[in-house]
Fold this sequence. Notes:
Strand content: 25-35%
Structural class: alpha+beta
CATH superfamily of the largest domain: ATP-grasp fold, B domain
CATH class of the largest domain: Alpha Beta
Low-confidence stretches: none
Helix content: 25-40%
CATH topology of the largest domain: D-amino Acid Aminotransferase, Chain A, domain 1
Distance between the termini: 70 Å
Number of helices: 17
Largest sheet: 8 strands, antiparallel
Amino acid sequence: MFKKILIANRGEIACRVIATARRMGIATVAVYSEADADARHVRQADEAVLIGPPPSAQSYLVADKIIRAAKDTGAEAIHPGYGFLSEKAEFARAVEKAGLAFIGPAPDAIAAMGDKIESKKLAKKAGVSTIPGHMDVIADAAEAVKIARRIGYPVMIKASAGGGGKGMRVARSDAEAKDGFRSAVNEARSSFGDDRVFIEKFIEQPRHIEIQVLGDSFGNLVHLGERECSIQRRNQKVIEEAPSVYVDAKMRKAMGEQAVALAKAVGYRSAGTVEFVVGAQHDFYFLEMNTRLQVEHPVTELVTGLDLVELMIRIAAGEKLPFAQKDVKLEGWAIEARVYAEDPFRNFLPSIGRLTHYRQPEPAEGVRIDTGVYEGAEISMFYDPMIAKLVTYGSNRAEAAARMRGALDEFYIRGVSHNIAFLSALLTHPRFVKGELTTGLVGEEYPSGFHPADVPHEDPHMLAAAAAFVHQRTAEREAAISGQLPLHGRKVPNEWVAMAGPVRCAVTVAPTAGGFDIAVQDKSYAIRSAWQPGNPLLRCSLNGKPACLEVERLALGYRIAHGGAQADIKILTPQAAALDAVMPVKETPDLSKYLLSPMPGLLVSVAVTEGQEVRVGEELAVVEAMKMENILRAERDGVVATIHAKAGDSLAVDQKILEFT
Length: 661
């Protein structure tokens, strides 16, 4: 067994590998860019080596620097994690040429499966179901349109070397095919250094279901069941689960056998994933093979009881698989949600900055958190904005989902925006509850974007009761402090008015052992908690059941968050509430004459000039953020008066790009 390994990655996956290596008694070496000098994976590893400036092209993607770091520190093997160099055959070859072990598949297998065009040809030859399409390189947008017409709309335009949702576009018309081809090519070039794209038929009402495979160097290959990864946004997975409600034993066997057949065709070893797109009639087609560990691997680990990272390390060290296909058992249910630094209420714009406050759910049965951050860490513009992966396990799907919903309430994140509300909304959505999933679910259910109205609380009066609890406890503490001063004693009333916007509710608070009994209109809430002012999380027993609510004190009132919903609630005396009703409301400024950057990023291009007339829907500019291109279009007809930024500028969120007359 290896004595020391280097992890050629960063963030949560580097921390994940370090955790298993430590348990196995293996020393670890981290590599880091200048932006990651204080990163969690650097702190956790036994050694750390600086490999370059923040841009990944100058650090995490430079194979020579990583191999040199391994040699200099005496590491015997390199684990690539996922992303970056994990699916670069040239890197795997260079690692082996340097006399080190590559903790992953053989270079030839990576090369065979890494090219999506060639992999589909190999899959077809191996007897694996494939999607109709054009597998050769496409020269330009005009040819893309011709091919799309021949296949028949809708089609999917995809980067040959793609992954992670980058370089992918669905086209339903000639115009969309032209735009999609251009964007896919640009994203592919930026993200992978390879601008080749191909086109295939887009399967309507598709599910994304993948099979985990595992093989050793002795020809032993098994599959570990499926993962349902259909809930996606812009082709980026959001929530994954194992097993899938859509797959029965017969279908699992068929998909597993095809996945293993493909892996055998390329002499596969280590962990890998064969992805399928599944149609409405339980028909399934090969999508691609990821020759690495997947982001969502924890759900498979929880339902199989296996540690995939440990098995990858043991296989790379020359050990045989310790079990056969007949020994693989799937028990229970696991769900994973990706907590990202992004703003779901502003079209999921990436959010960068320092995590000024970060608390994650406390250790509990059936709750696992994989993260690469800590309070005070930086979410950088240079890398993926993932904060954590929350994974829950239960004896069945309902139990796993309930644990997930409860754990999401226990996150406390400040300094950057996050997608907790979106994840909570998905977990309670009727289609998720029923298991009626497709890759189009997010776009279909939130066609105009995600808004606060999409996460109404099931019991708004409960939020008012929580605000009243917090206010009563705070007022009592303030009264106790002021009572220590001469002539400053005061009594705290127990009759209040809770105000959430125009909605007003009468509230009565009655002290009792361990908390308060609170009446909001005609509803009663027994809240018991040791909460004290200053704590951002109200952990309590609410009507006999455990609950956790986020609490933030505002200038007037409190912001209460629970179950993805959020409410700003004032708790006032009846007299103060009457006066508040006649206070003037400040008007918000009109910004409609500006095109503002919706995110921090790079202004790739400006498509208009000063004095030009534009029509609604016309392209105005392209902003790149997190290696994804975002086309900004006119929301109304107008004339460009002033251009405030130029191509190549780095933009802050809400920075002016254009101004209209």
